[in-house]
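Teaching soon. Got one?

===
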Amino acid sequence: MTGFERFGRTARIAAVVALQLSLASALGGCAALLGGGAKAVPTFDLSAPADFTAPRTGAGQLLVGAPTALAVLDTEKILVEPAPGQITYLSDAQWSDRLPALFQARLIESFENGNRARSVSRPGSGVTADYALLTDLRSFGIQAYQGNEAVVEVSAKIVNDRTGRIAAAQVFKARVAASGTAGPQATQALDQASDQVFVDMVKWASARF
């Protein structure tokens, strides 16, 4: 074997060894990620108030769609405002679903709990509706600069499904003091604030369809 051939063989062996080491390193990194390298974020839910009754003044059918929201609220993350106009999220908590979908589900459940189960449905259910409830999430988070307050603000409109005209409109807002910005304290305060909004919104809407 010539010196040139020995050199070529040595180079090939070195290349194979380097490739094997590279693959082993990559697989080790994947195993670290899949094997518990990423810490699970605690997940929280919103409740639907049940200890109230909504007035029934008509026999109309109401569709309750998912609310619109800016991108900062259209997420599972829980919003915190350290200062006016400054947005961050809790690192130790998240919602069980994207906030608009979660809000819609609990609002419909609130209507059902207020004895309006036969007159409320969601889009795509096949129900012919007389009215639609359109909502927009304006605020849903912790304002840390206000002494840790949970703030929920929602704009609501009842629209006649036949004419497209707005039959009623109102803004609902609730503030609840939070004992801290850790996940359990923040989500408990936000749940209490949203419960107030749900009750007020269900009673208001139920008197108008």
